[in-house]
Amino acid sequence: MMKKFKAKSVALIIFTFIGSYATLFIIFPFTYWKDYVHLPALRIWADVLTNLVFCAVLFELSLYIDRKLNKRIPWMIRPIKRLLTQTLFQILGVLFLVFCLAVIYVIIYLLFSDALNAHYPYVGLRETVYAFLSIIFWALLISALNTGDYLLRNWKTATMQAAEFEIKAAQNKQLAAETELQALKLQLDPHFVFNNLSVLSEIILKDQQLGYDYTENFAKVYRYLLVNSKKKLIPLREELKFLDAYLFLINNRMGGGSIFRVNIARATLDLLIPPVTLQLFIENAMKYNRTEKESPLVIDIFTVNDDELVVSNNLLPLIKKPESTGIGLENIIGRYALLSDRKPFIEKTDTTFTIKVPLIK
Question: Is the pTM of this model over 0.70?
Fold first, then answer.
């Protein structure tokens, strides 16, 4: 990028240098140039070098003025004021440079008049005024080219950002739709309903009171899914009420193969969390691990720093690993991408799998 900018700067300086001579050829009469070519070679080369340096300084000054004004009077906010201010400063800059150039010429030709040994051909007042106006023209042209390049780059950047925003918005919209669809699947998952009804029919035959409790908790879970799964956020205390009912179903369905340890700070109960988050984490842990009475799956659910929820479990890998779809965790990560600038954190070691999610105020 820097090399490209330098190449463009050199090209513009050369363009200004050649253009300035082309303008002078038009302004000054033929007799001037006829006398000019008979000047000593050293003087002509000194004149050419001085003009090249002048064009380079003129170019840098124009860019410097533009950069300063870009910060103080942006084109997008006050275009008329910016145009007038930029034109004024460019003209003042040219006056300053011409004055400096005149001083340099006087010093050089006073000190080295014998070596240079010649005088410039006569130039009239009209040609002098035209030459000065041509310098202003080239300064304004450089400024216009630089401004055009600046606006074009800004337009490209703005266009790319707008395209990125559109893509991001489309992705978020798709993500929201997928999240809602996943939540709907959780509500109406036939396996969830079938498994719990099958367990319920067995429990009723053995213990009617337990069957009644199981039915109550199953209704709480299903009601929670129907009512809250489409909400963006709910208080943590509501999610924990759902968790109590959900864990009741798991403990009676799975037996003693899993242990749940819940330790939630009271200060976090009114903080918010996407609904069904804990169910997804628990399902994820139970899907990829064994649940045996001799070696139970231990799932810890606790809070840290008063604004973070942690779900951690020991690893008891299944002999035949189920195919991972990643939908559950992606669902939570996707929902947090829409709700907060803080992201969930997932850590897997040789012995544990831990998920941390921020609690939203």
Answer: no
Domain positions in the chain:
2-162, 233-358
- Separation between Cα atoms, residue 48 and residue 135, nearest integer Å: 15
Separation of alpha carbons 116 and 320, rounded Å: 95
* Predicted pLDDT of residue 228: 80
Whose tokens are 């976090």? That residue is 268
Provide the 3-class DSSP secondary structure of residue 344.
coil
Angle between helix 236-254 and helix 190-206 axes, rounded to 10 deg: 60
Helices (H) and strands (E) in the chain, counts: 11, 7
Q: Which letter does DSSP use for residue 266 in this model?
A: G
> What does the chain come to in residues?
361
Contacts for 43 with CB less than 8 Å, ≥ 6 apart: 116, 117, 118
Q: Which residue has the tokens 């969830």?
A: 192
Distance CA 348, CA 353 (A): 5
Query: For residue 154, how far is the Cα from the chain centroid?
Result: 16
| Angle between helical axes of 208-228 and 190-206 (0-180°, round to 10) | 160
Q: What is the pLDDT of residues 46-83, one digit of tens each?
A: 777 877 777 777 777 777 877 788 788 877 777 788 77
Give the tokens for residue 9. Answer: 């700067």
Q: Which amino acid is at 276?
A: V
pLDDT greater than 60 at residue 183? no
Give the N- to C-terminal CA distance of the chain in Å, as an integer.
43
Phi, psi (deg, nearest 5) at residue 294: -70, -35
Indicate the fold that domain 233-358 takes in CATH. Answer: Heat Shock Protein 90 (3.30.565)
The kind and range of the H/E element at 311 are: strand 308-314
Reference 105, options 29, 53, 59; nearest CA is: 53
Helix axes 277-287, 236-254, angle to 10 degrees: 30
**Contact indicator for 236, 273 with CB cutoff of 8 Å:** yes
- Backbone angles phi and psi of 165, in degrees to 5: -65, -40
